[in-house]
Design brief:
This protein has about 325 residues and is mainly α. Helix content is about 70%, strand content about 0%. It has 11 helices and no strands.
Length: about 325
């Protein structure tokens, strides 16, 4: 698996396995988070969960999961592979040994570079996932706009035009094709700027707390960390990262859910100002409780699976 002293492929493979496990665990709450941040008509988290269940049954929570299951596995492979290999490259450059422990400054640089690299692949993945998760509300908004454009001389009731059972996208491939046709290649990267604002500091507050907590939970420097300690450290790191990233995540979700047919945001700044003026400062913390709850099991599963997979691969 090892191609050189400072570059390893096993981190990418372990990250791929960890990504798959985290998607299955975290997607239902991710759907709730997206609906709360970019949707309409939800009073709170519980109301959102009940509304999705009543209108769409349990399958509503797994809308758009097939695409993340395939793509986020690759995305997490890139994230973990980039972070681990960047650490080794920094250690080799600064200390002459890729196995030398990184300082806090080294971890900060590696984390921020990982966040920057992740956006290139993660922005289109997130956009397609959000468009698929938001299908019900996007169709309804389009139909209401159509009804509002009907001339006043007609007596067509609004409900006869609204067809919420219709789906804008038949699946992820059709979604990508539709976005490319209507918005061009740049359409797949809508919200990428907001994603950079979320992920560059977000990954710093993801990997650094995880590393610190692992060091604190380790009995001594020579012993290996217990799986329960890895699970706890990963879960706490995930909650910390997602809670602090929520304001930027709200902006990103709104930008990405803002389809061309009913586009209302000209850019990141316009989205921030418009959201603040219409809904107040609290809008930027919408879904924060879901992020905190979802971040724990999702990240705990991801880090534990990553570490165990890495141990297994390196033992072969």
């Amino acid at each position: 698996m090892q191609t050189s002293k400072s570059f390893r492929m096993d981190d990418f493979i372990a990250g791929w396995i960890a990504g798959a496990s985290s998607v299955v665990v975290g997607h239902p709450l991710d759907t709730v988070k997206t609906r709360l941040q970019a949707g309409k008509g939800y009073k709170n988290t519980l109301h959102c969960i009940l509304t999705i269940y009543r209108k769409e049954t349990i399958t509503g929570f797994f809308k758009g999961m097939s695409f993340p299951l395939v793509s986020i596995t690759v995305y997490n492979s890139v994230v973990f592979g980039t972070f681990s290999n960047t650490q080794r490259l920094i250690s080799k450059y600064r200390y002459g040994d890729g196995r030398h422990p990184c300082s806090m400054a080294d971890l900060t640089v590696a984390s921020m570079l990982t966040g920057l690299v992740s956006v290139g692949l993660g922005a289109p993945v997130d956009l397609v996932k959000i468009r698929l998760q938001m299908q019900t509300q996007m169709v309804l908004a389009e139909n209401l706009q159509l009804a509002g454009n009907v001339s006043n001389g007609t007596n067509i009731p609004m409900r006869s035009i609204s067809i919420p059972s219709q789906r804008l996208y038949r699946g992820p491939i059709h979604c990508i094709s539709s976005i490319l046709q209507t918005e061009g290649l740049q359409g797949l990267y809508r919200g990428a700027g907001a994603m950079i604002l979320r992920d560059v500091p977000g990954y710093m507050l993801y990997f650094i707390p995880y590393t610190i907590m692992c060091d604190l939970l380790k009995p001594d420097t020579s012993s290996s960390l217990h799986p329960g300690s890895i699970w706890l450290a990963g879960g706490l790191a995930g909650s910390i990262s997602w809670v602090t990233a929520t304001p930027a995540d709200v902006v990103k979700s709104r930008m990405q859910a803002d389809a061309q047919l009913q586009r209302k945001y000209k850019g990141i700044l316009h989205c921030i100002v418009h959201s603040y003026k219409t809904e107040g400062a609290q809008v930027f913390f919408r879904g924060v409780s879901v992020n905190a709850i979802r971040g724990f099991p999702m990240s705990a599963t991801m880090f534990l699976t990553y570490e165990l997979s890495l141990q297994f691969i390196r033992s072969l």
